[in-house]
Fold each of these.
Amino acid sequence: MPRAPSSHHDPTAGFTLVEVLVALAVVSISLVAIGSVMATTSRGVRSLEQHVSLMESARTIATNLPPRAQLTAGSLTGDIYGNRWRIDVAPFVGGGIPVVPDSQWLPQTIRVRVQSPTGAVLGLETVRLQRRRTE
């Protein structure tokens, strides 16, 4: 048989002040943890977007390098997609590779440096063979 509701209040019913404070502390710690994860994720996304932009600029620059015959020692600079770039071309030295005097090829070091407006820098270095001019 069901019990009829009593008209008097149970003094132990409800939450104590300590229980409420503990619950609020748990909720606030959870919110801080979620906020921290969100901030880290957004920083990572911005960093990734910046890196992709720099890589896209570097690929475009490398794709549009002048032909070997026109790419001489020195520097080229410019601006693409809002990123500043610089290409340095120099004779290849180092790596313990001896220069072969009678070779028809001269190795050149090509350094591509791309800098975003925020200051992030991407640097690439490669070696390109230049046909030796016969005189």
Amino acid sequence: MQDSEKEYPVRKAKRQVRDEDSDEHDDWQSVPPLPANGLQYALGIGILGGLLTATISVIITLANSSTFQEAATLQEKMPFNTATTIAGLNCLSYFIALAVCFTAGYIVGKVAVLRLFGFYAGALAGGIAYLGGILTQYIPNYPGHIASTSSAGAVAGGILFLIVLLIIYAAIGGLMGLWGVWTTTRHHPYYLAKRAQEDLEAE
């Protein structure tokens, strides 16, 4: 009984010290509010990013129109140099698309903070960029134009395949956007405060 009576004041004192310490840090432990209209900013940035990527892709194609036209005409019979050039230009377009998605997420982190919005912006930019690249291939007289002579069943299967690819491109763009927004907000007070609260709750 005597030992427990001696330990009780010690425990009480420790609890008081912890309470006082938490009161001193209430300011930085409280989660600050997020900026207003964050989702609207994220969607706008994603749309602009997708349009920018599609525009850059069109510029690259038009600047190398003779190469793309030759590839569309010869198809499997195209020279190795032409195939290598086409592959390099496509890789350049994909790299630019990834960079734009990352940048979109980075900007969203600056203006909207919430990381989920960065994913939305990146996914939207990636999806729009992919749709733009597909639609341009069916424009008459466009370099690399694809003539449609397929049956209805093949067209339906092709549409399903395009939808799957659209989802994949949007997911990759979303991950790049999430990376960008995480890079911006890893030291933001909002997430630092949330992490501090989670640490306190875990204790």
